[in-house]
Amino acid sequence: MTKLITVFGASGQQGGGVVQALLKNPNYKVRALTRNPESETSLKLKEQGVEVVKCDDSDSKEIIQEALSGSYGVFCVTNYWGYFEKEVEYGRNMADAALAAGIKHFIFSGLTPMNEISQGRFSVPHYDQKYLIEKYIRELSKLNPKTFISSFVYAPGYMQNFLTFYKLKKNIESDGSETYTLSTPSDPIGKPLDIGDITEMGYIVESILSDPIKYSGSVIPMSGDCLTGPQIAEIYSKVTGKTVNFEFIPPSVFRTLPFIHHSEDIASMYEFCNEYGAFGGIDTSIAPKMHKLKTFEEFLISQNVKLE
């Protein structure tokens, strides 16, 4: 029997990856929830046979419940950068709506509980708020163990961010040669950073959906590669044939940079990652067994990255 899976954030990188993975599996039909059903991305989804429904994180429980009607499972990713302190309220409301709609399997995209793992030393709202939502979802499953299974995926650092947010700086040396600099707050002598092609999250979600009992209550962190800043720069050099050097920006300096949006939050995230690693010791061996995840080198090659 074909199961209907509804995907929040279907026009984004995570949700979009989930949609594409599920479309390849004949066991599933896909419903995409989006703020704008007439956007270019939404229209392309419709062309692929996806049911597109207008729904936003901030909608009422009743509206979200209706949007989920008839679904077996849900993939839910919340938008901290869109709603900030409202994220927890909206995330809990989405879970309540899913329970009311009779959803059997609720998969939530969370993040490492940095404040809890560090015993309060590091406060990283865009991570910690997702953990508050996760705890609420777990409580709903505890109260409804036979009818509301929940599972959790944790995203790594996006490999895509190295093509946008951490874009390389071009330098002209004294001899006229060109070099490039990658600058991040990832300490070369700290823990290496877990990163992944975030569009591959869909294959992890697909695997979790295929065995709800096995993955009930589980946290599956996704990591395609685990690298230091200098290693990332070295891979850039190998793939592009250009000289790429790494520059470490201490988090204490990074958080003062006026041109970086949300620098405080991101600096605290790197302070945690430099000391504990991106997942704070949570087992990362499960996701690669579910799907062959791209290494950073494979990702750059797949994106046909060139430096000119």
TrEMBL record:
Belongs to the NmrA-type oxidoreductase family. InterPro entries: NAD(P)-bd_dom_sf (IPR036291), NmrA-like (IPR008030), NmrA-like_oxidored (IPR051164). Keywords: NADP. It comes from Dictyostelium discoideum (Social amoeba). This is NmrA-like domain-containing protein. Residues 1-300 form the NmrA-like domain. One of its GO terms (cellular component) is nucleus.
